[in-house]
Specification:
The chain has one domain (18-415, 426-430): LCP protein (Aminopeptidase, 3-Layer(aba) Sandwich). α10 links the parallel β18 (363-364) and β19. By secondary structure, it is an alpha+beta fold. It contains 10 helices and 19 strands. The longest helix is centred in the N-terminal third of the chain and has 33 residues, at 18-50. α1 runs parallel beside α6 (258-282), α6 (258-282) crosses α7 (284-295) and α6 (258-282) packs parallel to α10 (395-402). The strands form 6 sheets. A 7-stranded mixed beta sheet has the order 1-14-7-2-3-4-15. Strands 10-9-12-13 form a 4-stranded antiparallel beta sheet. Strands 5-6 form a two-stranded antiparallel sheet. 51% of the residues are buried.
C-alpha cells in the first residue's frame, strides 16, 4: 500500500436480469482480449526500443504458424513497408497454469485442468497506419455461427485451435465477411508475468473493497494500492465486487457483475500498459523481462516479422487515443440445442457499422477523448444489450499507442516505412458509440501507475 488518497469513484450501474448477467459473463473474454492486445503493443514498442537485431533474436524464439492467404483481403503479400489497413486476429487461452496453489487468491480461480486448451477471447484488431487509427472487435465465445465449409452451427469458440487458426479465420470470413491478415495468440498468464515484471500496478480505492470469492480485499479507504501477481488477477477477475459505503455503514455489491469487472479490467490494463511501456522504453532490463514474459507463450503467423512490427509502430507514432474504438459483435442470448448461445444481430444498425469498418467499407470517425468525474457509487439497472461496452474507456489503448511516438529514436539497423504512390479512395466515416458500466477507479493524479 502507498500513501492514501481520496479520489472520487466512477458511477456504476448495478444488477440487471439474469440475461444481462449472462451476457456480461460472455463479454468478460473481451477484456482479456484487450489485455492481450496491449501486450502485443508492448512487443511492438519494446522491439523498436531495443534495436532491430535484438528484437530479431528475441522474436525468433516465438512459435509460428502458417495462415491461409486466401482468408485475407488480398493485401497479405504486400511489401513489409505497406501501410494499408489490416485485420489482426488475436486470441487468448484461459487456464490457471500460472496460479500459485499456495496463494491466498488461488481459491477464486478453481481447478480448470479438465477444460484443456480453449480460447477465452477472440478479437480482431483493425490497424490503419496510413491514417493512424485502430479499432478492436470482440467476438463472444458463445457466438452462434456456421462452421467454415459446412452448414453445421456451433459456438465460435469451437473453431479455435491455437496452433492452426485457419478454421477460425475461415469461420469469421464466412459468417461476417471480415478478412484476416495476421494472427497472434498469447496465454492469459502473460498478463500476470508482465505485471510482476514492471513491479506491480498502482490503483486508487476511494472506498474499502473486497471480493470474498477471489480473496481480493483493500481494507483502507482512500488507499493507493500496488497490486502484483495473483492479487492483480484476483482484482481484475472480481465479479462479486463489494465496496464499503460510509454513508450507510454497509458493504454494497456492485450489481453489474461482469459489466463492472470489464471496466475495472480496462482501467487496470490502462495503468499497466502505461507503466510497462514507459519503463520498457527507458530501462533495457525491464524491456527484456517484459519481452521474455510475453514471448514465452506467444504464437504468431510466420508473416509477422520484427521489421513489420517496427514499421507499424513508426507509422502509428502520431496515433490519437481518442480514435480508438472497442466493440463487441452484438447479439441476443438464446437457448439452442440445450446450449446458452448468442445469436448475432447482423441486421442491427450497430452490427452493420462494425462490419463495414472491418471490411474496409468505412473508416473510423475521429472522436475526442473525454474524462468524467462523478459522485459516490449509486446502483442502477443496466440494459440487456449484448452489444458490449466502450465509450471513453478504450482510450487506455491509446495510452500504449501514444508512447509509440518514441519509436525510431533508439533503433539500430532499421529504416522507416516507405510507400509507393497509390490511388486514394475516400470511404465514409462511421461513429460507433457504446457505454461503460460498473464501479471503476478514478483517474487520480495522486495515484499514478
Amino acid at each position: 500500500m502507498d500513501t492514501p488518497v481520496a479520489p472520487e469513484p466512477s458511477l456504476p450501474a448495478s444488477a440487471g436480469s439474469d440475461g444481462a448477467r449472462a451476457a456480461g459473463r460472455r463479454r468478460s473474454g473481451r477484456v482479456r482480449a484487450l489485455m492481450i492486445f496491449n501486450t502485443v503493443v508492448a512487443i511492438i514498442t519494446i522491439a523498436a526500443g531495443s534495436g532491430l537485431l535484438y528484437a530479431n533474436w528475441k522474436l525468433g524464439s516465438r512459435q509460428v504458424v502458417t495462415i491461409d492467404s486466401a482468408s485475407g483481403d488480398g493485401n497479405i503479400d504486400l511489401p513489409a513497408g505497406d501501410l494499408s489497413a489490416k485485420n489482426y486476429l488475436i486470441t487468448g487461452s484461459d487456464n490457471t497454469a500460472c496460479i500459485d496453489p499456495d496463494s491466498p487468491f488461488a481459491g477464486g480461480f478453481g481447478d480448470r485442468s479438465a477444460f484443456g486448451e480453449r480460447s477465452d477471447s477472440i478479437m480482431v484488431v483493425r490497424v490503419s497506419p496510413r491514417d493512424g487509427t485502430a479499432a478492436i472487435l470482440s467476438f463472444p465465445r458463445d457466438l452462434w455461427v456456421t462452421e467454415a465449409g459446412s452448414t453445421r452451427k456451433n459456438r465460435i469458440n469451437a473453431n479455435f485451435n491455437k496452433k492452426d487458426p485457419n478454421r477460425l479465420i475461415r469461420t469469421i470470413k464466412q459468417n461476417f465477411g471480415i478478412p484476416i491478415d495476421h494472427y497472434v495468440n498469447i496465454d492469459f498468464c502473460t498478463f500476470k508475468d508482465v505485471v510482476d515484471a514492471v513491479g506491480g500496478v498502482r490503483v486508487p480505492f476511494p472506498f474499502k473493497a473486497r471480493d470474498k470469492r477471489t480473496g481480493f480485499k483493500v481494507m483502507k479507504a482512500g488507499a493507493c494500492a500496488t497490486l502484483r501477481g495473483d492479487e492483480a488477477l484476483a482484482y481484475i477477475r472480481s465479479r462479486k465486487y463489494d465496496f464499503y459505503d460510509p454513508m450507510t455503514g454497509k458493504w454494497t455489491r456492485d450489481g453489474t457483475s461482469d459489466w463492472g469487472r470489464i471496466n475495472r479490467q480496462q482501467d487496470f490494463i490502462k495503468r499497466m500498459t502505461r507503466k510497462a511501456l514507459d519503463r520498457a522504453r527507458t530501462n533495457p532490463k525491464v524491456a527484456s523481462e517484459i519481452m521474455n514474459a510475453t514471448l514465452e507463450n506467444v504464437i504468431t503467423d510466420d508473416r509477422i516479422t520484427p521489421l513489420m512490427l517496427l514499421q507499424l509502430g513508426q507509422a502509428m507514432k502520431n496515433y490519437d487515443a481518442g480514435t480508438m474504438g472497442s466493440y463487441t459483435m452484438p447479439g441476443t442470448g438464446q437457448m439452442i440445442e440445450e446450449m446458452a448461445v448468442i445469436v448475432p444481430e447482423l441486421e442491427s444498425e450497430i452490427a452493420k457499422k462494425i462490419i463495414a469498418l472491418y471490411r474496409g467499407e468505412a473508416s473510423l470517425a475521429t472522436r475526442a477523448s473525454t474524462t468524467t468525474t462523478v459522485p459516490r457509487p449509486v446502483p442502477t439497472v443496466p440494459t440487456e444489450s449484448a452489444a458490449g461496452t466502450s465509450g471513453a474507456t478504450p482510450a487506455f489503448i491509446g495510452a500504449a499507442a501514444t508512447i509509440l511516438g518514441a519509436l525510431g529514436s533508439r533503433t539500430t539497423g532499421a529504416t522507416p516505412p516507405t510507400t509507393s504512390p497509390a490511388t486514394t479512395t475516400t470511404i465514409p466515416a462511421v461513429v460507433i458509440e457504446q457505454n461503460p458500466r460498473g464501479i471503476v477507479p478514478p483517474n487520480d493524479p495522486a495515484c499514478p501507475y
